[in-house]
Amino acid sequence: MRGIWKWVGLAGVAGVVAGGALVARDQRKRRAYTPEDIRAKLHQRLAESSAGE
Q: Can you give the residue ranges of every domain in the chain?
């Protein structure tokens, strides 16, 4: 019975580590955008939504 809890604990730790890695990767992607890139994307979205109406 003890062995089962050890494996459950290890799986939980592995899940936390994997989740942290995904969050870190997402943060790096977001920081790669320059303010001009963000502004251009926002203007593009606004133009698309205005054209749809």
A: 26-53
